[in-house]
Amino acid sequence: MDPNTLSFIKTEKQERLWNKANDLVKSFQGRAAVYDQDALFPIENFHDLKNNGLTALTVPQKYGGEEINLYEFLLIQETIAKGDAATALSLGWHNGTIMQLRDTKKWEEAVFQKVANSVVDEHKIINTAATEPSTGSPARGGKPETTAVKNKDGWLINGKKTFTSLAPVLDWIIITATAHDGETEFFGEFLLQRETPGIHFEETWDTLGMRATRSDDLILTNLQVPSSALVATKDPGHGRTPQGWLLHIPACYLGIALAARNDAIEFAKSYQPNTLPHPISEVPEVRRKIATMDLGLMKARHFMYHVASIWDEYPEKRNTLGAELAAVKTVGTNTAIEVVDLAMRIVGGQSLHRSKAFERYYRDVRAGLHNPPSDDLTMMALGKKAVEEYQ
Question: Domains in the chain, start-ordered, CATH in brackets?
Answer without folding.
Answer: 3-123 (1.10.540.10), 128-234 (2.40.110.10), 244-389 (1.20.140.10)
